[in-house]
Amino acid sequence: STVFDVQRVRADFPLLARSVHGKPLIYFDNANTSQKPQTVIDAVDEHYRRHNANVSRAVHLLGEEATAAYENARDRLAGLVNAASRGEVVLTSGTTQSINLVAYSYALPRLRPGDAILTTVMEHHANIVPWQLVAARAGATVKAAPIDARGELIVEKYVEMLTPEVKLACVTHVSNVLGTVNPVRELARECRRRGIPLLVDGSQAVPHRPVDVQALGCDFYAFTGHKMLAPTGTGALWARREHLEAMPPFFGGGEMIREVKFSGTTFADPPHRFEAGTPNIAGFAGVGAAIDYYASLGFEAVHAWEQQLLAYATARLREVPGLRLFGEAKEKEPVISFLVEGAQATDLATLLDLEGVAVRSGHHCAHPLMQFYGVPATLRASLAFYNTLEEVDAFVTALLKVRRLLM
Ligand code: PMP
């Protein structure tokens, strides 16, 4: 048992105090987006009240302050994932933009007809569709490594599929549907042996566990701010310096150039080369506060409490008659997908909402994974460190009740 003071933590999140449909809110849709602590809300508010100006363009004090907040987010994100330097962190609007940047700026110029990109069956569409788009332009293909019935990647198959025509390998660190933690270190080692760069989708890992990109040994690590307490429209791409230096810009515009002439424009060094236009400055002011908040709790403490919640919720859900769990990997983050026999996922989610419980139902932007399991949708309860064992109990009670209504 842990000394994690969840009631004190909850008091830092104003939204958690509200009710929905006259019931106390139980927010179990954290894999979709997390709630924000007051300190993050204050940082955004403070930015607009006191510091609002554009970045990098003005010599006046407000411009300097806004630039400092924005560049501070880069430092903090670099520290968060243990980048070798701040210059390896490109600030983006989120994982989707980060992966598209790699697709268009790194993969596309390197892909030749007959080449392939390797991904997996358990990926979010953000780690499938960008690869399909650039592969189609280049006459290349996208291959998907299989998973087993427990929802674990079949590592030997993934490694077998790392053939010479594969120019880039991709994998999610943690599945947004199954919660499965993939063995990224091992995959990175196998990729490196074959000279194939590895991109990791860290969207669902960074909110839950300490991440060290150097220890993982991957080449690209994409993640999103809004799932880790920060405002929406913030995210990052970490990439090895040599990759960023070899990448042409993807978006063109202000802020990313050295000199513009109609006879030819030269570009800024990375990471600014990839940050055209005015970014989400207020959002990035919130990123610093979000990382401070995690640091104040301690990632190890967060992880330990979430693992307790996961174990408890999984055990309680197993008591529900006719419940089928998806994803029983040995190592998981607190994401639980399930179906209940005789009831539609959407009907259950709608009735749960009336009980105050926010869960997601649907395909979770993972059609291939739904096809693998032969279901159109699942229900997904995704937990965060500010959730409680009492909420899990109330959720299971509500699920039993709405199940009876639908039987
Ligand atoms: N990958 C995974 C595994 C995700 O869970 C998500 C968000 N649902 C994304 C990518 C996309 O992130 P964003 O919408 O923030 O770009």
Give a verbal description of the structure:
With 407 residues, the protein is an alpha/beta fold. It has two domains: 6-30 and 298-406, Aspartate Aminotransferase, domain 1 (Alpha-Beta Complex), CATH 3.90.1150; 42-295, 3-Layer(aba) Sandwich (Aspartate Aminotransferase, domain 2), CATH 3.40.640. The chain contains 14 helices and 17 strands. The protein has helices at 6-10, 38-51, 61-80, 95-110, 129-138, 155-160, 184-193, 213-216, 241-246, 281-297, 299-317, 345-354, 367-373, 389-406; strands spanning 19-20, 23-24, 26-27, 89-92, 116-120, 141-145, 166-172, 198-201, 220-224, 235-239, 257-259, 266-267, 323-326, 335-340, 357-358, 360-362, 378-382. The strands form five sheets. The chain has a seven-stranded mixed beta sheet, sandwiched between helices. Strands 13-14-17-16 form a four-stranded antiparallel beta sheet, with helices on one face. Helix 2 (38-51) packs antiparallel against helix 10, helix 4 (95-110) runs parallel beside helix 5 and helix 12 crosses helix 14. The protein is globular, with a radius of gyration of 22 Å. The mean pLDDT is 96. 4'-deoxy-4'-aminopyridoxal-5'-phosphate binds next to helix 4. 4'-deoxy-4'-aminopyridoxal-5'-phosphate binds at residues 94-96, 124, 126-127, 172, 176, 201, 203-204, 224, 226, 235, 365.
